[in-house]
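Supplementary notes for students who missed Thursday's class. We covered one full example, reproduced here. Read the sequence, then the structure, then the short commentary at the end.
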Amino acid sequence: DTEILCKSNRKIAAMHFGGITIECLLKSMILASVSSQEWKTDSNNPGHTITNPGHSFTDALKRHNRLYSRVQNFPEVIKWINIVENPSQNFITMRYSSSEPNDDKYKE
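Structure (token representation):
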């Protein structure tokens, strides 16, 4: 889907969709590491303390101690995550922009 959006000159949509894909992957990795498949909320206590990190990749990583400590050993991974999360602006906010990125920025 991301590739088709890009080929259709919808790079902002492709970048946004790619960010959502990474967000879902991180959240699934977090939930796979706990016994319950539910986020802790004020009204729900599934027996762990992991809350939904929202759209923040860094907050998601911090909720998975082993993954976060591994990422800390590779500064380039942190750089990549920051680029995906904030390519020119936050990837959630970006979907409302009318300014398409150039090819180099998109590839980055």
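Commentary. The two ends are 18 Å apart (CA to CA). The first helix runs from residue 2 to 7. If anything here is unclear, bring it to office hours.
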